[in-house]
Amino acid sequence: MLYFWAVKKILPVIITLITISVLGIIYLQVEWISGATKLKREQYTQDIYIGMQNIRDTINKRKDNSVGGISFHTPILSFSNYIPTPSVLNNFQLRDIIRHELRMKKINQSFEFCITNEARLPTMFSSGYKMEFLDDTNNQKIFLSTENTIMDTEVLNVYILQPENYFQNHLATLLIASVLFTSIIIAAFLLTLKTMLSQKKLSEIKSDFINNMTHEFKTPIATIQLATDALKNEKVLTDREQILYYSGIIKEENRRMNKQVEKILQSAQLEREEIKLQLRKLDVHTVLQKVAENATLQLQEVNAVLTLTMNATNSVIYADEVHFSNILFNLIDNAIKYSKENPSVHIETNNIGTSLQLRITDNGIGMSSETQNHIFEKFFRAHTGNLHDVKGFGLGLTYVKKIVEAHGGKINVDSELGKGTVFTVTFSNKLGVE
Question: What is the pTM of this model?
Answer without folding.
Answer: 0.46
